[in-house]
Every structure is written in structure tokens, then in C-alpha cells.
Amino acid sequence: MRGAGQALITSRIVSRRWTARGALILCAACAGPDPADANAAPWRYALTWDPSRTELRGEVTAPPGDADVVAITEQARPFFASDEGWSPTRDGAHSLHWTITLDAAARTLDDVDRLAARGSGFVGTLDVLLPLPTKGEDDAPFTLQVNAPPGETFACASESVAEASWRGTLGELRRGPACALGAIAVRSLAPEYTRITIADLAPGANRRAAALDAHVVACTRATAAWFGRFPVDRLLLLALPTRGPTISGGSARGAGGARIVLDVPAPLRPHQLANDWVLIHEMVHLALPSLPPAQHWLEEGSATYAEPLIQAAAGRVTVESVWAATIAEFPQGLAPPERGGLDDDSSWGRTYYGGALFCLIADVRIRQRTENRRSLRDALRAVLAADLDITDFASIDEVLALGDEGTGTSVLRELHAATSKQPFAIDLDGLWRDLGVRLDGSRVVFDDTAPLADIRRELVQGPGAERTPDR
Ligand SMILES: [Zn+2]
Prior knowledge:
Layout: E1 17-18, E2 24-27, E3 43-49, E4 55-62, E5 69-72, E6 80-81, E7 87-88, E8 94-101, H1 102-109, E9 115-118, E10 121-125, H2 126-129, E11 132-133, E12 141-147, E13 153-156, E14 159-162, E15 165-169, H3 170-175, E16 178-182, E17 185-189, E18 195-200, H4 209-227, E19 234-242, E20 249-253, E21 259-265, H5 278-285, H6 296-313, H7 319-329, H8 348-369, H9 376-385, H10 396-407, H11 411-419, H12 428-435, E22 437-440, E23 443-446, H13 453-459
Parallel strand pairs: 3-12, 18-19, 19-21
Antiparallel strand pairs: 1-2, 2-5, 3-4, 4-8, 5-11, 6-8, 7-8, 9-10, 10-16, 12-15, 13-16, 14-15, 17-18, 20-21, 22-23
Helix pairs in contact: 4-5, 4-6, 5-6, 6-8, 8-11, 9-10, 10-11
Zinc ion is lined by residues 1, 281, 285, 300, 303.
């Protein structure tokens, strides 16, 4: 699941007022000198709060020049105040102070992709907490310094440069990097050449740190092994407290920096994560660029399809259990002809399992055309190798062309042409028969004399199996 990017207000006015679109625009009455490289001077933000956490106080310093125009996103407007307006600084820049009534905003918005109170802190996105520059190129820099009260801290999906200090580009900032603050436990892990910041908002979070960290490392390693590398080099993982037997939900988001939100039981015992599938599902999302809403099925379908394959390859589940779940669950992706193509049907079943069926059929066809030497995994790896991940936008045509290039076939583009805009008949029983797999009650029975048995053996593999040995 993903949150949509938030609206950005870009109009400029010469005084302070509310716009018709609901954003408060603030600009300096007089601009200072305009140095040749004003764009290289960062927009500097600072945030602080006191232990009551009722109010977040901020200051922004705009570079010299006429770039010092900011807008408050509509969601934050009722909670935002800036009585003084811009004041000039000694170096010709301008600074602006503001406050946001944090607890009231979080109660009203109550959305982790805007602002919400969870556990012992808040989660949200920087585009709600900060006034955003409406001028300035997307590649111009910003910095953020946070002064938290004792015992409290801040975490952010932007690049960390020092203790309590982050940086990024205005383009990233405008997309709204995820963040969290409060009496939260923040720590960094560095498995498999990536850097994961875990921000745990559960009260008493340190008591579940060992179990949660071990699970994050195991899932990171399993995902990295399957893709050849971990999909992103920087990830913010926000662990929210929930009740229940295991991780009950999650989402991945790439806007302004990769982040995963997980609803993790609090208190937590290690066995409660043994059967978790959510974290690897979300980690697969990191490997695909953000697609237009009509192609959400490929985002969810690839995560639904790849997650059990990653679990099996890591030895976290058996090959038989993957086939049992595949045969039982994938029919949810079938749809009657009147529902149209994948692009036209945003239902849950078609989005998750219709997309997964697309991936399964593509995987089988790629293997058929390449004598089992290439697979859907090669296609997904090729997209990553082109430096595309969840923090990027791409069209499905771009993604599928890269994927086909990675397998030396045109399977993905052909299958997309056949399934996206019109109904596509799928004979699942015939596919299971050809692959040589069926359910006998709850028992999985394989038929190695089936015409596609060789492909079936390599579709789902256990740990350490580059090629499955002959049975
Ligand atoms: Zn998902």
C-alpha cells in the first residue's frame, strides 16, 4: 500500500494571504542580494518541541535572492501560525518562524502519511510539518536540524548527515519524506549494504528491539539475496504498536526517501514474527518504481508473487507450502469478462492476485522461451539495475521494457498488451496440470512427468538451490 503524494501549491504572491486553494503563502516583502550561486545555498530548516509535545516550533532560513516564498499544505493550514512573517538575516537571507499545534493536528489528520499520533510519538511527513519553498529548483538543497527535548528524538527518511541533522533536495522535500518524533526508540542497522533506521513508537520499545531487529535483518538478507542486492541504500522503518498475534499491516512509500510502516505487536515475543510475511512483501515494493494508479496491480502483484519465493529461498517456508498457498489463493485474481482488463479493475482481488497471476504467467513464459535460463526475477533485477526503485516514478511501458531486456524476451510487453485493457482468460487448472502440481486435501502432490515439471521445480526453490537437483 502506498500513500499518494501531497499537493504542492506553487503560485507566488507579494504579500501574505490565504490562497483560494487553501494554502498559506508567505513571501518576503523585500528580497536581499542575489548572489550568482544562490541556488547552492541550502534552505535551512530547524525544528524543536518541548516535552508536552503540544506544539512544534520551526524556523526556515531561505537563501538570499527572491526564492524565499513558502506555502503551507492545505492539511496543515488550520494548525499553523506565523505571526512575525519573514525577517532579514545578516547575510541577506530571510528567516521565518512558525508553530504547528502538533497534538491537535495529529488528532484531526490521523494519517501516517500526513500526521498521526501513535504510541509515544507522532508519525507524519515533512511536507505537512514544514512550509515548502515554492521557488527553487528541485535539485536545490535543504538541510534540517532538530533540537529535541531530553529523552526524545526525531527520525526521517531524508539522508542523515550528522547527529540530528538531515539533508536532501527541494524536489525530495516537496514529495514529503516520512518522519517520526517523540519519546521513540531510534537505531540504525546496516545489513547487506543498506542503512536501515528503525524508529519504534511503542512505549517500552527497547524491550522488543532484539526480536524486531533480528526479524528486520533476516528479511533484509532474504530480500537482498533474491534481488542480488537490497533495493534501496537507505530505508526508514517506522514500527507502530498494535495488539494481535503478529505484524498486522504495513505499507511502503518512496516519496522523498524510502520508508516502510509496520504495525508490530507490543509487547512482542520472537515467535510472533516467525510466520510474518508483511515485511518482505513491503521490501519487494522497494524494488519497483512508483507506477500510475491504473497499474497498481503490478506493484501489489509483484510483491504478492515474489514474497513467498523469497521466503522459500531463505528457508523461512517450505516449497510445498508456497504451492499450497498459490493454488488456494491465486484464483482470487480471476475475474469475469465484464470486469475488463487489469488496468480497469481496481478491486482488491484483481489488484493483488490478478497482478500476481500476471507475474506467474510471465515467469512461466519467460522460462519456456529461455529454456529455463531466465525468469521474472531477472526482469525485476533488470529494473533495479537501471537505478529505478520506489523513490522514482516510471511508466509501466518503461518498467516492462527494462524487464524484457533483462530476460532477452518480449514476454512482459506481450502479456501486458493482452491483459491490461481487455479480459484475459486464464485456465488455472490447466496451468497446475501442466506444471505438475495439485492439492490432495491439504497435501501438495507433484507430478514430475508433467510437461512443465522442469519449470515448476525452478519456479519455487528452497534455500541454496540455484538449480533444483533431479528427484
Ligand atoms: Zn503491498
